Amino acid sequence: MSTDLPDTISGTELHGSTYVVRVAVHRASLEPPAITEIRDIAPAPIIESTFSHVAQISSVPPLALREIIENLVHADFRDALVTVLDAGRTVRVSDRGPGVPDPRRAMEPGYTTADERIRQIVRGAGSGLALASGLVAAEGGLLELEDNLGGGTVVTITVDAPPAPDDAGVSGQPNDVQRSLLALLLEMAPAHPETMARELGLPLGVVGRELVLLEHRGLVARFADGGRVLTERGAAIVATLF
Known about the structure:
With 242 residues, the protein is an alpha+beta fold. The protein is built from 9 helices and 10 strands. The protein folds into 2 domains: 2-158, Heat Shock Protein 90 (2-Layer Sandwich); 176-241, Orthogonal Bundle (Arc Repressor Mutant, subunit A), CATH 1.10.10.
């Protein structure tokens, strides 16, 4: 459920079971931001809803955007805030979680604080920030990791222009999960990630991440409400796979 307010995203855990993420979009320097409040009782759906919302208004590489939004799970979404600036060229994700003890290592593949609970929601393999940083750098942009005021973490991604429409490291044949998603979309599009995860018996986080990769390759398109459909290229690929 979303409620329109000003332009930034922040998340807070309420009553021990409900998570809140506020998305704030700054459209003019002398105007207050437009804020959308996103709520859910589970981490995976709120990650998916937040990503789907921000991806529509940002030119940050989609997979990098997904990675830094998923990173909010480490802070249990406490005071999580996503701010969209510069006509979508800058996205800042902040929280009031435990912070990052060693920012330098956090940017290197293999270092992670993810426990078993977190790994059930996101990949948690210690590659998120490193992957996001590499994707942003490939577009001539910058990813910065800083301490938040009063505790927590701030991740800021800035790009100069929209990502180039190429495969950007995700080329090659679709993997097994992607093949299943493409086949499912051929049968029941438009479909939302929650529906596809349920149909395939897969975690929502896995489905959401693979859909991002398929979108980045131009095989899947996303509607504003989060529904997905095959593109012409995607339909042609499906015809060769089965």
